[in-house]
């Protein structure tokens, strides 16, 4: 969310103050011999609770206990673990003392540790300064603020504190491109959490420059780390970071308290970026989120990794593209920067790999205030994102074209026409294309709802009649949602329709009908001809017009992508200009080192009438 610079500075000051108080408090508590932490995770939907704490010997214990178990049994198990840990520490100490000294003699062993190890430490649980009875069940005994005592060490029990269940940094990081950590929180909120970024000190850097986190995990590399000055969730490396790894230090929070901090170091150092990209100039038009009356909409086929990473793609489809620029890790940097830079309210994506949605797009766009839904096709699928400050998701109405055509009474008449052409029927029902339909409601005005549809029609150049039938199914289904289920709500229909403006599919959408003698009914020859007339209810137009091309590869260029809008309820406020022909062809064609897909994103600002 965009904020005034003063507000951003104030929030940054709060974060720094909280961190400083936290560190100062920790230092004071340590000096005073204050309590350690015992972290308890206990949720009603699970039969067991977990208990995590560090013993005096330095070992870390993670225990799983039945919620319905008496706490006395759990305490007895803790005592057993403490005895074992003490025995191990004593044995190690004895071993060190028995080693020969420098003069060749054996060191004095001193009193045997066995008697000390055998003494069972006092293990008690207190709540509000009273001992918890041993027959109290675990679910009731381990309360937030309770005190666990193991021997002379006391632990403050923290029940369900904010915690990161997942924290990852991208494998490939480039200067000038935002780094989006993938994170999942339990009992917390990223907006209430603290983030601080560090970079590796360059070889030979002065020790005075180092200012790494005060308590790095022992498993992390023992490098010298320097603060970058960045305390936001997203970090954009500079050219000065090239060749250095990054470290992210996170403290999860929920607005009331903070949980245990975690760190993550990038696997690889920061790489140099590609320089100017095709979308950089477009971002000049989309610097801010639009006002409430507008809906900035993006439609984009991002080129699925499952198609980009084939020998056919490298040698036949995109031989002009540098191999590294087809790698997913590289392209994800460009896709994330491009999409987040549009500051869109609605984003419809095609050719989205399932893992790309969950591991890359969802974390990146969520950091910028968007939430997404995904619909798989076969090897890839569709994704629709919406800005949470403007919209909430009311319902989803996704369909598979072939399944809907066969089983939904809504398409009975169309199916009766198609069965008259058996060859065509077989081909249509073999296709796996899907339609994603999401109904969104305005967060500012609950009376305002909108139907957002997203699809990727059959790709084959000779599949014109298949695309016509798919579009007929799509429009009938969208009408059912926007007229029967939610009467009168406007429609935005985005996608890669694999149809140029001269095709029957486009004619059908724009004009509302297609005659039975249109040439596309025989697009794959006479054997599969299926003459029929079709009509639809909507009054639609292409919001971005008819660009010369939205797909530009070595052997083809043409307009295949559209954002169709309901003319009765929406109008176009602004169309974001496409990249210039010079930008598109700088590296011959798309994709390239400066553009991550073979398609170009359509971006426009729509306005409620």
Automatic annotation (TrEMBL):
Query: Which InterPro entries does this one have?
Result: CCR4/nocturin_mRNA_transcr, Endo/exonu/phosph_ase_sf, Endo/exonuclease/phosphatase, PDE12-like_N
Q: Which UniProt keywords apply?
A: Exonuclease, Hydrolase, Magnesium, Metal-binding, Mitochondrion, mRNA processing, Nuclease, Phosphoprotein, Transit peptide
Q: Where in the cell is it found?
A: Mitochondrion matrix
- The reaction(s) this protein catalyses: Exonucleolytic cleavage of poly(A) to 5'-AMP
Here the segments flagged for biased composition (Basic residues) are 87-99
Q: Show the GO MF annotations.
A: metal ion binding; poly(A)-specific ribonuclease activity
Q: Where is the Endonuclease/exonuclease/phosphatase domain?
A: 299-599
What residue spans carry the Low complexity bias annotation?
Answer: 100-115
For whether the record's keyword set contains Plastid, the answer is no
Q: What is this protein called?
A: 2',5'-phosphodiesterase 12
Give the organism, scientific name: Prolemur simus
Gene for this chain: PDE12
């Amino acid at each position: 969310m965009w904020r005034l610079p003063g507000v951003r500075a104030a929030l940054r000051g709060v974060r720094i103050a909280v961190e400083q108080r936290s560190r100062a408090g920790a230092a004071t508590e340590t000096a005073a011999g204050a309590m350690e932490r015992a972290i308890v995770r206990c949720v009603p939907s699970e039969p067991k609770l977990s208990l995590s704490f560090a013993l005096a010997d330095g070992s870390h214990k993670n225990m799983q206990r039945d919620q319905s178990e008496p706490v006395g049994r759990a305490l007895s198990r803790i005592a057993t673990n403490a005895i074992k840990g003490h025995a191990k520490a004593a044995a190690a100490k004895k071993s060190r003392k028995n080693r020969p000294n420098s003069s060749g003699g054996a060191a004095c062993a001193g009193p045997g540790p066995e008697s000390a190890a055998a003494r069972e430490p006092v293990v008690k649980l207190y709540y509000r300064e009273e001992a918890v009875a041993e027959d109290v069940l675990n679910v009731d005994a381990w309360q937030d603020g309770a005190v666990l005592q193991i021997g002379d060490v006391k632990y403050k029990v923290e029940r369900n504190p904010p915690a990161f269940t997942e924290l990852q940094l991208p494998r490939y990081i480039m200067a000038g491109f935002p780094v989006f950590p993938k994170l999942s929180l339990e009992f917390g909120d990223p907006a209430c959490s603290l983030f601080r970024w560090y970079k590796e000190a360059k070889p030979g850097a002065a020790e005075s420059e180092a200012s790494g986190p005060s308590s790095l995990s022992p498993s992390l590399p023992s490098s010298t780390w320097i603060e970058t000055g960045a305390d936001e969730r997203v970090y954009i490396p500079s050219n000065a970071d090239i060749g250095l790894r990054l470290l992210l230090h996170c403290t999860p929070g929920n607005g009331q308290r903070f949980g245990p901090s975690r760190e993550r170091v990038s696997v690889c150092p920061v790489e140099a970026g590609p320089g100017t990209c095709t979308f950089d100039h477009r971002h000049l038009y989309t610097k801010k989120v639009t006002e409430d009356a507008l809906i900035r909409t993006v439609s984009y086929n991002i080129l699925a990794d499952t198609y980009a990473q084939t020998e056919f793609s490298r040698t036949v489809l995109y031989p002009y593209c540098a191999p590294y620029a087809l790698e997913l890790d590289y392209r994800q940097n460009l896709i994330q920067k491009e999409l987040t830079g549009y500051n869109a309210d609605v984003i419809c994506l095609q050719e989205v790999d399932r893992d790309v949605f969950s591991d890359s797009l969802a974390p990146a766009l969520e950091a910028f205030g968007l939430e997404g839904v995904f619909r798989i096709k076969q090897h890839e699928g569709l994704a629709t994102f919406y800005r949470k400050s403007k919209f909430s998701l009311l319902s989803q109405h996704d369909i598979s074209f072939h399944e809907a055509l066969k089983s939904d009474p809504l398409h009975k008449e169309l199916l009766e026409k198609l069965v008259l052409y058996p060859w065509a029927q077989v081909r249509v029902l073999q296709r796996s294309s899907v339609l994603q339909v999401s109904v969104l409601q305005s967060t500012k005005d609950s009376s305002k709802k909108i139907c957002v549809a997203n699809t990727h029609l059959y790709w084959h150049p000779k599949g014109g009649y298949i695309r016509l039938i798919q579009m007929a199914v799509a429009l009938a289904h969208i009408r059912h949602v926007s007229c029967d289920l939610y009467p009168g709500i406007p429609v935005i229909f985005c996608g890669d329709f694999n149809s140029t403006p001269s095709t029957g599919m486009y004619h059908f959408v724009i004009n509302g009908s297609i005659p039975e003698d249109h040439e596309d009914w025989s697009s794959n020859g006479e054997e599969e001809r299926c003459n029929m007339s079709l009509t639809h209810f909507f009054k639609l137009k292409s919001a971005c017009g008819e660009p010369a091309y939205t797909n530009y590869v070595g052997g083809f260029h043409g307009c295949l992508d559209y954002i169709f809008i309901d003319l009765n309820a929406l109008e176009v406020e602004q169309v974001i200009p496409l990249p210039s022909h010079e930008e598109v062809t700088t590296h011959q064609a798309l994709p390239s080192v400066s553009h991550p897909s073979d398609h170009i994103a359509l971006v426009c600002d729509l306005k409620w009438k």
